[in-house]
Amino acid sequence: MLRLLQCLVYYPRPVHMAKRYVSIWFRHLTTDKFILRQPGLKTVPFVLAAPERGRMVVKAANALARQNRILPGMVVADARALFPDLQVLPDQPGLADKLLHKLAEWSMRFTPIAGVDMPDGLMLDASGCSHLWGGEQAYMQDIVSRLQHAGYEVRATMADTIGAAWAVARFGDAMLVEAGQQAEALRVLPSGALRLGDGVPERLARLGLYTIGSFMQMPRQVLQRRFGPLLLTRLDQALGAADELLNPVQVTEPYHVRQPFLIPVCTAAGIAAALEELLVLLCQRLEKEGKGLRRCTLKCFRVDGDTQEISISTGSASRHTAHLFKLFEPKIVTLSPDLGFELFLLEAPVVEEVTPAQEALWHNGGHRNDPALAELLDRITSKMGGGNIIKRYLPDEHTWPESSMKPAATVTEVPATGWRTDQPRPIHLLPKPEQITVTVPIPDYPPMLFHYKGVLHKVKKADGPERIEQEWWIAQGEYRDYYTVEDEKGCRYWLFRLGHYEDGAPEWYLHGFFA
Known about the structure:
Blueprint: H1 2-9, E1 21-26, H2 29-37, E2 46-52, E3 55-61, H3 63-67, H4 76-82, E4 87-90, H5 95-106, E5 114-117, E6 121-125, H6 136-149, E7 154-159, H7 162-171, H8 182-187, H9 200-206, H10 220-227, H11 229-239, E8 256-265, H12 268-288, E9 291-302, E10 307-318, H13 321-328, E11 341-353, H14 356-360, H15 371-384, E12 393-395, E13 405-407, E14 428-439, E15 449-452, E16 455-468, E17 480-487, E18 492-498, E19 507-513
Parallel strand pairs: 2-4
Antiparallel strand pairs: 1-6, 1-7, 2-3, 5-6, 8-11, 9-10, 9-11, 12-13, 14-15, 14-19, 15-16, 16-17, 17-18, 18-19
Helix pairs in contact: 7-11, 10-11, 12-13, 13-15
């Protein structure tokens, strides 16, 4: 990123700088991604298939499958006839587009302009960038080695034109096409390297025109009359006689604002004033986009090169400037300006949508959705730490009692289901059942006596059992028979027996206390 900033700031591109483009071809884009997810697939021939006109068709094949003559477009039944041990996995529509956009954003460390080249490539405008790596060869090797280390099999070529870089990356063997040498590089390549579409390369081959050089010098009128205007357009673009535009990806601008100072800031009051100004600017942008921040960091750059930072987090999305400043304020004193801070950078790495209804609640109060309550919790958390805040719990749809609830993510989160009220539940439920010793057990009945933490309890009254089964799709285990029992002192407990007497001596546990 530092090199890229140098490219943008210290080495502005001259108006007449020669263009240089890099085409990156991912030979097995989607299957490489599947191997990264499941490393065991690396030694297995497999394909990605999807239904098409009532039959399963291969959409992508890994390198091992291609070695067995299995290619995209084949019917899965035909592919298995060639290679019976072929593994077939369901294709994920849109995966290639998603991967290429992420890779295009990643590649912006090498260039400020990067575009997606569907279905399996990227195109970079590398004009004026390679000298920051010590030359074009080192520049290209860095790109290729990083992608290969990440698990992708790639080929890449740099040339003066998009067309030449694309053609040599896929049909040639050179990583660099020297400036002005695209005609020589294209001459020996097949006609399909010009991106002519279906049918045109076959028609050229029927006339004996197998390579680009075999028709490069032919009269243009003849080529257009017999093969249409696309052939001449692609040839001119590849040779540099016609312009071809690169469609760059639009990277989402990060939520940050910065404030430099000619005179370094050395006091807490100055830091607070700068922070308030940055929060106003950041919250203005968040308000325009209908968002609020969940986490925010102030980075302070000192004149001697030292960097310090303080961070806050909120229980719900917020763009309330005064509230956010109150969270930051106690932490300002932890900064050490020394000779002074010359730059402040305020970042919001985590933001969320804020609905109009949520925003209207700023002026309402007296209930759980009151933002004042969320702000109070944020301030307490900031001062005391999140571990000292009692959590709010919501019902969760699980059969085991200890799993039937979950902590609320925010103070305003609404439960998806209601609390169970058809059966008695203890007011205090232990997070983990504690084993007890039962005396005089009677099969399928509650115990008459039980020991808990060294104290003997004599059961006077009991109700039950309530059988609760384990969720077989989550885990295997015995069922539980729960009993509500009352001892001689009037204390009420929630006990359960794990399993049945027929399986041997079952274990008993105490799981909760009633009022």
